[in-house]
Amino acid sequence: MNARVAGALYLLTFITSIPTLALYRPVRDHADFVLGAGSATPVTWGIFLEIVLALCCAGTAVALFPIVRRRSETAAVGFLGSRLLEAGLILLGAVSLLTLLALRDDAAGADAASLVTAGHTLVGVYDGTFLVGQSLMPVVNAAFLATVLFRSGLVPRLIPVVGLIGVPLLLASDIAVLFGLYDMGSAPAALAALPIAAWELALGFYLLIRGLRPSLTA
């Protein structure tokens, strides 16, 4: 039962995360968004979806923790901790955009230049939490969970292999983004994220449809 719940929550993380790229376009397209440019409605929906995303991330950790713990205490704690940290960072990013909307609502009579600076700062906070929370933490998650699933044979080994391949690729990409070699939204960053995305999507479908196989190492 826990496995199927985790599978459903993994799939919900995709449903709730992908639309935000488009929903946050008003913030990206309008440097003076905080002054009232662009529509706030899609941004509000994006924030709502990210709150749901954070809850789904935490739910996968809670659902899979007892299963992973039976195979490795260290991996279980590492997976739980990194997944909850991911959820917390997603919520922090959502709060930064909620603050941006609050500034926008109270913009009347305020100094425009100061508001624009504050708005850019809040967007920068969101971008930072995205890099660490939604890009780096999945690397840590996969390192712990994929290792356990590969060794135990609880799912077909091809699925965790894809995750383990993605770990060094996405880690290297995140480091490149951190040092300014390219942007988070660039083609190299998107390509580097594909294996981790494929691993989580395949795991979600398998757990929801099939559950877990008997452990080959039990």
UniProtKB/TrEMBL annotation:
<dbReference type="Pfam" id="PF14329">
    <property type="entry name" value="DUF4386"/>
</dbReference>
<feature type="transmembrane region" description="Helical">
    <location>
        <begin position="158"/>
        <end position="182"/>
    </location>
</feature>
<feature type="transmembrane region" description="Helical">
    <location>
        <begin position="80"/>
        <end position="103"/>
    </location>
</feature>
<keyword id="KW-1133">Transmembrane helix</keyword>
<protein>
    <recommendedName>
        <fullName>DUF4386 domain-containing protein</fullName>
    </recommendedName>
</protein>
<keyword id="KW-0812">Transmembrane</keyword>
<feature type="transmembrane region" description="Helical">
    <location>
        <begin position="123"/>
        <end position="146"/>
    </location>
</feature>
<dbReference type="InterPro" id="IPR025495">
    <property type="entry name" value="DUF4386"/>
</dbReference>
<feature type="transmembrane region" description="Helical">
    <location>
        <begin position="46"/>
        <end position="68"/>
    </location>
</feature>
<keyword id="KW-0472">Membrane</keyword>
<feature type="transmembrane region" description="Helical">
    <location>
        <begin position="188"/>
        <end position="209"/>
    </location>
</feature>
